[in-house]
Amino acid sequence: MFSLRAFNTFGIEAEARQFVEISSIDQYVALRTSGEYAHLPHLFLGGGSNVLLTQAQEALIVKISIPGISVVKEDADFVWLKGGAGVVWDEFVQYAVNHGWSGLENLSLIPGTVGAAPMQNIGAYGAEIKDTFDSLEALNLQTLAIEVFDAKACAFGYRESFFKRAGKGLYLIGSVTFKLSKKPSVKTSYGAIQEVLATKGITQPSIRDVADAVIEIRKSKLPDPKEIGNSGSFFKNPTVSASEASRLMAEFPGIPNYPVEGSTEVKFPAGWFIEKAGWKGFRRGDAGVHAKQALVLVNYGEATGAEILALSEEIKQSIKDTFGVSLETEVNIL
Known about the structure:
Layout: E1 2-3, E2 15-22, H1 25-34, E3 42-45, E4 51-52, E5 57-64, E6 69-74, E7 78-84, H2 89-98, H3 117-120, E8 123-124, E9 127-128, E10 133-140, E11 146-150, H4 151-154, E12 171-181, H5 193-199, H6 207-221, E13 229-233, E14 239-240, H7 242-251, E15 258-259, E16 266-267, H8 270-276, E17 283-284, E18 287-289, E19 296-299, H9 305-323, E20 332-333
Parallel strand pairs: 2-5, 3-5, 4-20
Antiparallel strand pairs: 1-2, 6-7, 7-12, 8-9, 10-11, 10-12, 13-19, 14-16, 15-16, 17-18, 18-19
C-alpha cells in the first residue's frame, strides 16, 4: 500500500493500493495498453488541493505531473498561453503576470494545477477561468484519442464544468490554453482589492499590483496547507432565486450579496452563513473550522477524512436549519 498523505493538502492519511506518476499523455496511454493495470479502476490526482480522502483507495492513483508552459500563438493584442496539466497553477499565473499578459492575475495563489483549473472553473475576486479560457486537450479514456474542447464544450458554470458532470471520469486533461491580453485591463472592484491598493497609495494599478494585492489578501485570510491541512474553500457560495434573496435580505439586514451576471439569481457568501451560525473557529479533536475564514475546514494534525466530512455535514444541516439555505461542497469527496 502507498501513503497519500503527502499528496493531498488536507494532510489526511489514506492509503492507495497502487500509485504511478506520469509526465505525458503518451505515458498514460502506454500504461493503459500495457495490461499491467487494466484490471484496476484509475483515479487521477493533480495537486491534491481539492480532495478529501475519506477511505483507503482501491483504484490506481495516477499522479498527473505533465510539465510545460509555452506560447502557442500571438497577435498584436493577445497571446495564447498553454500549460501542461501538472504545472502548479500559481506558477502559471505568475508566468503570465511577469510577462505583462493580463487575465489571470485575480486568480493568483489559488492552490492546484493547470489541469484541474477548468474542471472546477476556478474563480476568485471577480474572475473565473471561463473569462480567459481558449481550449484544452484531453484524452478520451474510452477511445484513447485526443480531443480538443472549446469553452462551449466545457459547459462552464459556477465551480462547474462538463468534466464534473456528464464528462466526469471520461477524460484526462493534458493541457490548457488561455487567451491573455497584451493590453492590460485590471479588475479591482471585487473583495478587498481596492482597500489593499489604497493602503499602498496605488491609484493606477498594474496587473502585478493586482496580483500582489490578491496574494496579500489570500495569505491574510487562508491558512497555508504546509502549516495547517486544508483544501481552501470547502463550500460553494450559494446562489438563490431573486425571491429567496429578498427573503434573506429582509430577515438578515446587511447580509452581503452579489448579483449573478446574466441572471436574476443572487449569490451569497457561504462563509457569512457559517460564521453567523457560530462555527467559525470551532474545533473537535483535530478537525475544525478555521479561525480567520469560516469557509475553510482544517486538519490540525491527525484528523481523518471521515471526521472532516462529518463536520461538514453538521455545518450544512446547521445552515439549512438556521437560514433555509443549502450549502454544496466544493471539494471532491473520495
